[in-house]
């Protein structure tokens, strides 16, 4: 009897342990097993980069949320996301930054360590989401390790994978090895990885038709394939004189005043009643664009006006022309071209005198080559009289205001794959801002040379285009023609031509992101999920 009792007592802990193991196994299986049906719509959006500097993925998140999806956006911090993502159904998950000591190691050593850390961080985020994602939308590039992770998680959790092809990761990596390029062993491995894990997905989105055609032919992509050209969201539009005044007289006044290079360059101003670009009836210097009605008389004391008597701001005739170039300061943008063109413009402006305006060139963005190029600009503009170049970082809500206030946009993007298009130009077009863009193979899908912008091949041609467009500033007929092509159809002086294809008509009318997304992506995600298991 005693022996039986002892065995029974010894079995109790084992039985308890077995129950716990079975319970944990059941919970794990319930958590990881593929979902055939979903009680709610949920999407996980993975971007292995700064979320605030990934506009297309933020716009995707906004669109999913507006279509009643629980939306988890996974990526790195750094820049503030767009304010419209502050809503109940959107949650942002920030990945931990790689340790600083990795930067001191050679790339061939630091890269594998960084990949391992990224794998762990993304796995943890995707497997601990409270709402099992029906879709996982992943940005490519970077390809390593995200494509493999989402492929595996999609298999385990039954999520449909959507790959948003922005560019080709291996082509960007090849730029690190200028001597060997795509022949380098690491680039070959990266290409194999990208082709293998990117081949099969529920759907593929492409930023250009050229990328669609290339990848379908070369890699035999499997799944639904849709070309989704970048388009700006609703908040991108031309800025009113009131908006320009608020931007330069209030928000950016302190930042511009702190730029040593601008001392004595800009017209005198008296914030908050005037800026270098705008004035009010309370301004000491009351100048308007030629052709406008005379300004009303100022208050009795210009130095101390009654604010309630100040009327709406207007654009100054003596303002400088405002050029904007947005950049991530990476090797695929050669700012040496812009600096050379600005130097040539300065020389021409000295000869032309009043026929050409002063230029204020604002370069926005962050990136590794910023310090190098801005140091070059600082040295060059010591000898310039008509041109100044400054670098600024703007908050998400101020960036479209700056684009809408500018007179001309400059794009120096040279695609590593020759298959993607610059998002910066899309933003500019949304603000009815014409561009001068550096030529590459598929640029014609976005920039229609002579219609919504001009295409250049070198610094000399860019300098000539800037001069041509800005002669007679602020009354520039050629620049106005380019801008009118970008205005909404109801605001155009003439109707757009009727093209043979509906796609060409759509591109010409310049849809917003919301309209474009609803036409191409919404049908993919609102299908009956039970009939579309992959």
From TrEMBL:
One of its GO terms (molecular function) is chitobiosyldiphosphodolichol beta-mannosyltransferase activity. It is a single-pass membrane protein. SUPFAM superfamilies: UDP-Glycosyltransferase/glycogen phosphorylase (SSF53756). It comes from Mycena rosella (Pink bonnet). Its EC number is 2.4.1.142. The keyword Zinc-finger does not apply. Pathway: Protein modification; protein glycosylation. It comes from the Eukaryota. Keywords: Endoplasmic reticulum, Glycosyltransferase, Membrane, Transferase, Transmembrane, Transmembrane helix. The keyword Secreted does not apply. The chain crosses the membrane at residues 12-32, 101-124. Pfam families: Glyco_trans_1_4 (PF13692), Glyco_trans_4_4 (PF13579). GO terms for cellular component: endoplasmic reticulum membrane. Participates in the formation of the lipid-linked precursor oligosaccharide for N-glycosylation. Involved in assembling the dolichol-pyrophosphate-GlcNAc(2)-Man(5) intermediate on the cytoplasmic surface of the ER. Its main location: endoplasmic reticulum. It is found in: Endoplasmic reticulum membrane. Residues 63-226 form the Glycosyltransferase subfamily 4-like N-terminal domain. This is Chitobiosyldiphosphodolichol beta-mannosyltransferase. InterPro entries: ALG1-like (IPR026051), Glyco_trans_4-like_N (IPR028098).
